[in-house]
Structures are given as structure tokens and as C-alpha cells.
Write a structure and sequence with these properties.
The protein is mostly helical and 254 residues long. The protein contains twelve helices and two strands. It has a two-stranded antiparallel ribbon.
């Protein structure tokens, strides 16, 4: 078995096992706390997640405990973990990026499920994930000695975070602050891989959100004016991980 296949196989095993824990991870998130009724323009926050307060007032989000108890969520998440773990493992091979990305798969699945059903991305999950990825970046620096990758990861965090923050400032009702926080995690992890991964991963998220989200809105699976963007950000990041560096090499002639 070659190194790519073995990295994919172990990635599938680790992420698949982590997928079984997705319901428990979701159940750990504290209940959403709506904004004070006297301030209807406030952006709702749960220590976390942000969502348009008007949306919550009309249609309160599904409780996290109910989401965690969905029939079959554990095995479905395990299957998804197997698939994405294998994809990530094959994309990274036995590089330090494997240690960054494979553990992200189960957390990403939990966030995608939560955002899809509630339009919330809980800070309770995002901030510890950001801290863990940052710690792994520093450990990767110690192990590999790749200072350029560390700097690039930091710049990826700043660039993606600033870009999403600007979008949120321009149109806060179209992008939740949870998306801004998630962009920092993805920018950090993609930045370790390369600038191509950052750029393609970010662009792919918007492309998938526009095309796939638009199609889902046409068939009325999601609301055209308010479908969750987090799952598309996460899928776009996988696209960036798979093909970002080859696209970047083609653009710069490397």
C-alpha cells in the first residue's frame, strides 16, 4: 500500500470514528439564548452563534438536544466521516496537514448539521476548534521546522477573517458572525497548505453557495433569502484542499 492510500485509509478510520461522536458533540452545545426583546435589531448571540434576531423571534431555532437525538445521525455522520476522512487523507498524504485536517472532519460535520437546521454556528464549538488548530500549527512548526507554513497559516487566518468580517459589516443580515468565526478556522488550516488552498477554498465556498444553494432554493429545500452558508464554506474548503495548490501553480506558472 502506497503512502497516499495508507493516509486515506487511516483518515477514513479516524474521521469515521469521530463521526460517531457527532450527536454527542452537538448535545454538548448550550441552548441558544435569544436577544433581549427590547432590542429587535440586535444580532442574536448564544456565546456563539449569531443569527438575525428577527428570524429567531419568528422561527425559534431547533433545540440542539433535539438535533442530537435525530434518528440515524450517528451512523450517517460516521459514513460521512469515512468519506471525507478518506478524501482529506488522500489530499494531504503523510504531511502535517493530515494532522490539521482529519480531526476537523467530525467537528465540521457537527457544525454543518447545526447550521443546516438552525442557521447558527456555535462559538462553543468554533473557538475551541480554532484554538486546537492554532496549537497544531505551532506543533507542526516544531515538528517540521516549516516557518513559512506557520506564517502563511497566520496570514490565511487574518485574510479570511478580515474578508468575511468586511462582508458582515456591509450586509450583516446576509452573513452571520458565526460564518466570520468559521472563516478564521478555515483560513488557518488552509493557509498551512498554501495560498492556492486559501483562495480556491474561499472562492469555492461562495460558488457552491450560489449555485447549489440557488438550486436548492428553486426546489424549495432551503429558503432563497436565508439558507445556511456554513456547509458550503466547509465544502469549499475541501475543494481548496484538493485542488487549490494545482490551480495556484497554474496561475503563477509554478
Amino acid at each position: 500500500m502506497d503512502s497516499t492510500a495508507s493516509a486515506a485509509l487511516l483518515g477514513a478510520v479516524v474521521a469515521g470514528a469521530g463521526g460517531l461522536l457527532v450527536p454527542r458533540l452537538i448535545a454538548l452545545v448550550p441552548p441558544y439564548q435569544p436577544p433581549a426583546p427590547e432590542d429587535p435589531d440586535e444580532i442574536g448571540s448564544e456565546g456563539d452563534a449569531t443569527v438575525d434576531a428577527a428570524v429567531v423571534e419568528v422561527d425559534p431555532p431547533e433545540p440542539y438536544a433535539d438535533i442530537a437525538a435525530l434518528p440515524g445521525l450517528g451512523w450517517k455522520s460516521a459514513v460521512a466521516g469515512l468519506v471525507f476522512g478518506a478524501v482529506v487523507g488522500a489530499a494531504t498524504g503523510w504531511e502535517w496537514a493530515w494532522a490539521l485536517w482529519v480531526p476537523l472532519v467530525p467537528v465540521s460535520l457537527a457544525l454543518a448539521v447545526i447550521d443546516w437546521r438552525t442557521r447558527l454556528l456555535p462559538t462553543y464549538l468554533i473557538l475551541p476548534t480554532l484554538a486546537a488548530v492554532a496549537a497544531l500549527v505551532l506543533v507542526g512548526w516544531a515538528v517540521t521546522g516549516d516557518g513559512h507554513a506557520v506564517v502563511r497559516a497566520g496570514l490565511g487566518f487574518v485574510t479570511c477573517g478580515a474578508f468575511y468580517f468586511l462582508l458582515w459589516l456591509v450586509y450583516p443580515r446576509g452573513l452571520g458572525f458565526g460564518d466570520v468565526r468559521l472563516s478564521g478556522v478555515l483560513g488557518l488550516a488552509l493557509g498551512w497548505v498554501g495560498w492556492g488552498a486559501v483562495l480556491v477554498g474561499t472562492y469555492a465556498g461562495f460558488l457552491l453557495g450560489g449555485v447549489v444553494g440557488g438550486l436548492l432554493a428553486v426546489v424549495r429545500i432551503v429558503d432563497r433569502k436565508g439558507f445556511p452558508f456554513g456547509p458550503f464554506m466547509l465544502l469549499g474548503a475541501v475543494v481548496g484542499l484538493l485542488w487549490g495548490e494545482s490551480v495556484w501553480s497554474g496561475l503563477v506558472g509554478g
